[in-house]
Amino acid sequence: MPLYEGDYDATTANVLDTYGWGWHSDTGLHVIRLFTSGVFDRFPRLKIIIGHMGEMVPFMHDRILHFESHFGQHKRGWTTFWNENIWITTSGMFTLPTLIYALRNTKKDRILYSVDYPYETNLDGKKFMEDVQKSGLLTQVELEMLAYSHSGFSENL
């Protein structure tokens, strides 16, 4: 039986395969594979920045924890790895619900502001930051940390 690829035009197929979905799911899966392969046990100080509000991983966090015992033995568990080795960026994921969900399992000092140009605009990013400020989701200090100060970020690299 041939693989059904869909009855859509080349542009739609490209968007699904790349910036609309594929890049994100592929990158998220790669991060999980890096953890399960033991890379971070061998290199515990390795740091990774993941774009697009964590490339779907924060949204699958509970499922990852549920199946963590199937990933073999590790010196440090998934949550420790996520808290110590990973930063995520906003990169064009400019909605409050997305940020709120990421904050459920990602420390505030591990989320960095970025725009994702040319796929998104600086104006969209500015509006997002204004929306975050108006929402009261973050304190002024936390908002500044998200926007530019990233307290301790460079020292941890």
From TrEMBL:
Residue intervals passing through the bilayer: 86-103
Keyword line: Decarboxylase, Lyase, Membrane, Transmembrane, Transmembrane helix
Give GO MF terms, alphabetically: carboxy-lyase activity; hydrolase activity
Xref: InterPro entries: ACMSD (IPR032465), Amidohydro-rel (IPR006680), Metal_Hydrolase (IPR032466)
Q: List this protein's GO terms for biological process.
A: secondary metabolic process
Q: Which residues form the Amidohydrolase-related domain?
A: 20-135
Q: Which domain of life is it from?
A: Eukaryota
Please report which protein family the annotation says this sequence is part of.
Belongs to the metallo-dependent hydrolases superfamily.
Task: Identify this protein by name.
Answer: Amidohydrolase-related domain-containing protein
Q: Which organism is it from?
A: Bifiguratus adelaidae
The root-end lineage is: Eukaryota, Fungi, Fungi incertae sedis, Mucoromycota, Mucoromycotina
